[in-house]
Amino acid sequence: MAAHLVGGKLLTGWSTGESILGEFEVERDLGVGGFGSVALVRSRRTGERYAAKRLHEQEAHMRNLLLIEAQRWMGLPAHPHIVPCRFVRMLEGRMVVFSEYAPGGSLADRIARGEIHQDGPDEALKRVLSIALDTARGLSAAHASGLLHLDFKPANVLFAEDGTARITDFGLAATGETDPAAAIQIDWVLDIIVGDAARDADEHADLKQALLESVLGREPTTISAMAYGLTGAYASPEQAENRRVGRASDIWSWAATVLEMLLGRRTWPSGTVAGAVLAATLRRNVTRSGLVIPPGLARLLTACLTVDETARLHDFAPVVQDLCALASRLGLPVSQEPVRNGSEGIYRRRTVDGAWQDPRGLLHFAFEQAGLPPEDAVRFWPKGRDTHRSLLMQDLTMLEEARRLLESCSETAQIRAALVRALRDGAVIHERLGDWDASAARLRAALAVIDRAEPEEPVRVALSNVHNMLAIALRNVGDNRGSLNESRLAVEQARRLPESAYASDVLHEALLTAANTTAGTEEALHFVDAAAEAAAAGQDAANLAKCHMSRAATLELMGAREKAVAEWTRADEILTRLAAEGRRDLAGVHGISCLNRAQFEDLPDQETAYARKAVELLRQADADLPQQHGAQKLLSFRE
Fold this sequence. Notes:
Helix 15 (463-476) runs antiparallel to helix 16, helix 19 packs antiparallel against helix 20 and helix 21 (587-600) packs antiparallel against helix 22. A hairpin with a 2-residue loop joins strand 2 and strand 3 (36-43). Mean pLDDT is 81; it is low at 1-7, 213-221, 339-348 and 623-639. Among the domains are: 19-100, Phosphorylase Kinase, domain 1 (2-Layer Sandwich), CATH 3.30.200; 114-168 and 230-329, Transferase(Phosphotransferase) domain 1 (Transferase(Phosphotransferase), domain 1, Orthogonal Bundle); 462-539, Alpha Horseshoe (Serine Threonine Protein Phosphatase 5, Tetratricopeptide repeat), CATH 1.25.40; 540-639, Serine Threonine Protein Phosphatase 5, Tetratricopeptide repeat, CATH 1.25.40. It has a 6-stranded antiparallel β-sheet. The protein is of the alpha+beta class and 639 residues long. 47% of the residues are buried. The protein is built from 23 helices and 8 strands.
């Protein structure tokens, strides 16, 4: 597709060849989607290409809509017929959603070029059935996750390199509205069932989440929502009339798209008359291209394009079943339906070395401070039946809304403290999602808030921690100079704190970050030695194990293999002992140690053994740590 230029720029406002976010190079336009324009970009670090969708509007409510869109899209299970949403970043106050790039173009393009009807009617029918089956399976998977698409059309069907049809742009998806009273009552009941939170906060949260998943996480029998911003040419009658919609609306839009493929073009101005167009086509018994619609397909489309939604098909299961039977009769290969993985691990609001608190209390406070009814905050609560990544995005949505409301208030010490927490916790979630640039942006904003605080305000205690987090984020985007500068600022601030276990921990972490940034140098060893002194002062053996890990990595890079092995062994001994003593929170640290050791191993057997141990430990630590994927990749490469 050629680039679309507007005053020398693409529709996104970027220029071809422009660098955005310090990492991505803009190549060309891909089109226009709900709420934004889409461009093809390439990562200079990895070479991977993404479809980057940029929000048109800058208003906060539009930004929140796109964040909710990304949250729901990212929450969909991995499926061969759904384009995955990878991550979200901020650029000049506007959100950009990065999804996997599908190089095969869109179904709309193929219809416009007449490719569907190439090689005669028989081949055309096979193409239509293949695409219809792929997309029916993709929509069925979304519905199984409690998600409607509500804007299904040829432009939102893309093709992978192997020709597989995949659905994209869940810009109008909705999971329905939350009743505040019911949500509060459910949370209260779960607290009673699970018991005293003071016993073990992490275990209490885990048990509540597991119970919520078992009670509310089952596949919903009904889904309903209100559609906003639909494409009228494929809209169901109830969508066009702005009534509540459900699965049957997606079935109507899917059938209208299949009809367009059969005809080779869209011959109706409004999706509401697609059923009448089908009826007229069936009376002729043949399309203008000479394609004869099989009776089984005619019956199926008629059932999908029934105007009365109560009489229309409400489930894609019979649609997929009928399409498989039709495809088999035509001699098309029919693959097995992908099995949905219903077990994704327990959702925890913690990382290997960081955590964030449940955002609901902060959001409630923000609503109160902004003069809004606190019960209205409930509509932002997690729904309880989503995937791990989706739950991260829902927490991020709550934190973004809290931030927006707090920034609208007159600033006080209390408001500043809450705002720093919203920014800091949001940065941790972005780190979990692998979006280090967004994490860095929030940490810089948090530092700006702390700088406005009076010297005696408690929020200034967080200064060293935020500088250290920013140092880690900058190192992960390749800015080692900036990372080392932030590490030194973190060390400086930590040394100013009154003597305490917290001050020792913060100083230790800042020194280790500096060591990791300068890994492989004598300077790194000096930083590790200083970190070990801080760890000894804090009397936390886990911090001492981290020092052994950091020293081992630097010694490996310096070629001192024998000394490095001794350091790895000391770290392993400490972490194994602490695990036996009940320190469950260190499984992730131990897993990363094993992963790093595996990457330095020369012997394949040893590398495999440590990679396997890393996978096991990281699974214990959390459901979806980025390091776990690295360990899995290393293990699969060796095996």
